[in-house]
Amino acid sequence: MRFIGLIAATAVSVAAAPLNHHEVSTRDILPPFSLPDVAPLSTLRAVGVTTKRATFLYGPGIGGGPTSPTGALGLALIAADSALTDTELAAEAVLSTADRGVATLDIAKYNNLKTLDDYTKLYDDEWVQSTNPTGVMPGMLTNYTQDLLFSMERLSLNPYSVRRLIPGQDSLPFIVDSSTVQNVAGTSLSSLLSQGRLFYVDHRDQSSLPRTAQFGAACDAYFYISPSSGAFLPLAIRTNYGSNLIYTPADSANDWLLAKMMFNVNDFFHGQFHHLANTHFVAEVAFQAAVRTLSDNHPVYGVFKRLMYGAFGIRPLAVVVLFRQNGSIDNFFAHSGGAAQTYSATLYNNGVAGAVQSNYFETNLRRRGLIGSTVGPALKSFPFYEDALVIHNSIKKFITSFVNSYYSNDATVVGDAELQAWMGEAVTAGSIDFPSSSTMKTRGQLIDLLSHMAHLVSTSHHTVNTNNLITGGGVLPLNPSALYKDIPTAKGVTNVADYLIPVGPVLDMIQNQAFFSRPLIAGSNRTLINMFNDAIMLSRMNSATRAANTKFMSEMQAQSQVVKNRKFDAQGLSQGMPFLWQSLDPNVAPWSLTI
Ligand SMILES: *[C@@H]1O[C@H](CO)[C@@H](O)[C@H](O)[C@H]1NC(C)=O
Ligand SMILES: *[C@@H]1O[C@H](CO)[C@@H](O)[C@H](O)[C@H]1NC(C)=O
Ligand SMILES: *[C@@H]1O[C@H](CO)[C@@H](O)[C@H](O)[C@H]1NC(C)=O
Ligand SMILES: [Fe+2]
C-alpha cells in the first residue's frame, strides 16, 4: 500500500513541526498571523507562496472526483495527513476487532437471522464494549416499523435528499391510486401539492449505475405534512425496477416495510456518496487553492488548515478500504465501488453537491423548501436544522470575531491580494460556485465562506458519516445498504428478513460500518468543541480571536449538555421522532473530516 510507506517517511518531520512544517523559511520564527501588506514580512511571505505554488500541484482526484494534491509539497501534505487519518482508523480497528470477537462468539443468538427480530439481536449487548459505547440510537431497534421513524430519518440521518414540491412549478413525478391517497392522507395528491404539503425524494439516478451481486431498486418517494396531525409522514414509494411497483402505508405491513427498506438502500447510498462530494471534495478543492495562494502566515490559512486536519489522508484510504475491487462497497452495497466514484463525481460536477455558495447551510435548506418556505406549512420538527443551527451560529460568531479582528473594513477584504488570489485560484482548482475575485468584496462574504467550510467538515459531515453509521444510519433491520434477494415483482412478501444480509457476511458488514466510528475522540481534544482550540495557532492569532475561541468552547460545552440530556417525552418522541438522535453532540463528534 503506497501511502503506508509515505507515512513512515514523513512521520518524523511532522512530529517535529506540527503546524508550519511546509514553509521552511519561517518554520522557526512562527510569527503572528497577519495580512499580506504588513511589513517586514511581505517579501518573505511572497517567496513562501511562490515556493508553495512550485511544489504543491494539482493532480488527478484520488479515487475519482476533483483534483487531489501532487508535487513534492502536495505529496508531503497527503503523507502527513495520512499519518493522522491512518492512526485514528488503526485505533478504531483495534476496538472493533475486539467487539467483533465477542459478536462472533455470540453467533448462536442471532438464530441465523431468520426473522426481523433476530436482526435486532446483532446489537443486543454487541459492539458496545469498545467501538460503540453509547449503543444504537434508542428507539431504532424497537420502533423501526413506525412510519414516523422512517420519515423523520429524512430530516436527521440523511437530511440531503428530500425537497418540498412547489405548487405551480413542480408537477407530480408519479401518480398514486387516488382512493389510496385519500385513505392515507385524507386528501388527494394534487391538493397536497397545491397546499405545499408534498415532499419528494428522487433516487432514480441510481438505476443506471453498475451493480454488484447484491440488489437495490432506484426508488423515488413522496412524503407529506399531514393535514390532520401536522406530522411529516411517508406517502408512497415507487421502485423504478422490475415491475415498478408503487407501495403505500395501505399495503400489508410486510410489503410496506420492505418498500421502506428498499428506499433506505438507495438513501444510504445517496447519503454516503453525496457526503463524499459535498463535504470532502468541496472542502479539499477550496483548501488546495488556499495552499497555493495564501501564505502560511495568513490568518485565514491558519484557520482553514486547522479545519482540514488530516483531510488529505482520507481519499487514499477510501481507495484501499472502500473503492477497490471486492472492497467494502462491492461487498455490501447494491452498486459497485466504481459506481460510487461515478455517482460522487456526477453529484460534484452537476453542482448538487459541488456548488459552494448555493449550498450554504440555510441557503441549501431554503432551496429545498425545508426552512422559510413561502408555500405550505413549516415542518413541525426538523432535528438536523435544530442541532446544526446552534453549532453553525457559534461557528459564525467565532468566524465573525476572527474576520473583523483582522479586516477593519470591507476595503481591506478587497485589498488583500492573497485572499483575492485564492478566489481566482479556486475556479482553476475546480471549485464550483466559489466567490470570485470580482464578487468577494465584503467581510460578511468572507465570514459566510469560512463558516461554510467549518460547517462542511464538522456538522454536515458527521450527520451522515462517522459514528452515525453504526449507531443509526446503517442499523438493521430498517437501514440496509443492500438487499440480498432480488426486488419482488409482485406484492405479498411473507418474510421480509429473507431480503436482508445473511448471517455469513453480516459481522463483516457491521465492522465495516464500525471503521467509520471515532469513539476515542469523544471527550478528547479532537471534538468539535476544540475546532479552533489549537494552542500554537491561537498563540499566533490576536487576542480577539483567542477570546472568541473561549466563547465558542463554552457555547459548545453547553450544547453538548443539551444533546446529552435529550430524552423521550411522554409520547415516546424526541425532537418529534420515535428515536433519540444525539449525533451532533459537540463533545463527541470530531471537528474535522474523517473517512
Ligand atoms: C420508541 O422507543 C423507545 C425506546 O424503546 C420507547 O421508550 C418509546 O416509547 C418509543 N416511542 C414510540 C412512539 O413508540
Ligand atoms: C472478497 O471479500 C470478501 C470479504 O472481505 C472475502 O471474504 C472474499 O474472499 C473476497 N473475494 C475475493 C475474490 O477476493
Ligand atoms: C491532543 O492531546 C494529546 C495529548 O495531550 C496531544 O498529543 C495531541 O497532539 C493533541 N491533539 C490535537 C489535535 O491537538
Ligand atoms: Fe467522510
TrEMBL record:
Can you give the residue ranges of the Lipoxygenase domain?
90-595
Q: Which SUPFAM superfamilies match?
A: Lipoxigenase (SSF48484)
Region forming the signal peptide:
1-16
UniProt entry tagged with the keyword Oxidoreductase: yes
Q: Enumerate the UniProt keywords alphabetically.
A: Dioxygenase, Metal-binding, Oxidoreductase, Signal
Tell me yes or no: is Isomerase among this UniProt entry's keywords: no
Query: What are the recorded Gene Ontology BP terms?
Result: linoleic acid metabolic process; lipid oxidation
Recall the GO molecular function terms of this protein's record. Answer: linoleate 11-lipoxygenase activity; metal ion binding
> What name does the UniProt record give this protein?
Manganese lipoxygenase
